[in-house]
Amino acid sequence: MESGLDHLTARALLEWQVELGVTDAIGDAPVDRYALPDTAPKAKKPAAAAAPAKPAQVDAAAMAQQAAKSAGSLPELRAAMDAFDLCDLKRGARQLVFADGTPGAPVMIVGEAPGRDEDREGKPFVGRAGQLLDRMLAAIDLDRTQNVYITNVLPWRPPQNRDPKPEEIGMMKPFLDRHIALAKPEVLVVMGNISCQAVLGKRGITRLRGRWDQALGLPVIPMFHPAYLLRQPQMKRQAWADLLELRAKLGAGS
Prior knowledge:
Layout: H1 7-20, H2 60-70, H3 74-83, H4 89-92, E1 100-101, E2 107-111, H5 116-121, H6 127-138, E3 148-152, H7 166-183, E4 187-191, H8 193-200, H9 205-208, E5 213-215, E6 218-223, H10 226-231, H11 236-253
Parallel strand pairs: 2-3, 2-4, 4-6
Antiparallel strand pairs: 1-3, 5-6
């Protein structure tokens, strides 16, 4: 039978199929394309990105220990603390609060941390709490300008006057220990729970207050913090008893 398809029409149909993507003509025998080997190039898996190098962990307490140990005097210790940048509290504080009073005095008071007034003036125990402390000391013939030296566990103010965190206390403890060693007091007075924790490793100021203990080779007496006494004036009777205990200790040593 003669085909009715002329060559022009046949060519047009072929070009149309090529345009659609036809690449193979129909052969005389069927082809099982599932049985053919896979000759398509396999996509390469992207190389695994190298894990970013972890920053080296800095042992802040060890760095503080090294910096504190290198200080041979109170001015050198102050400079070492001022240059210490590993405590985050420094970033939010106005300035370092190092100490006040008389270096070499027989009595050294350790407070907790600077508050707003201390942060502004750069001295520990100022403002209302400092004024009450001065009156307490004067009652037993002590004065920060003559025979008392004062510092804090932390030299920078915590945000919103929150309690210092254990890791902050641990980080700055080498500086406190060196501070006490360089000041060479005869007696330590630790005021408040944070100071008891840092110096004695104990908490519970209501139970600890007025009872002599030992730390760093020195007699230590815990007392209520003046800021606490401003909030709880009924506790001033116990604070007075503790002051008398301190005066008796100093009198026995003279």
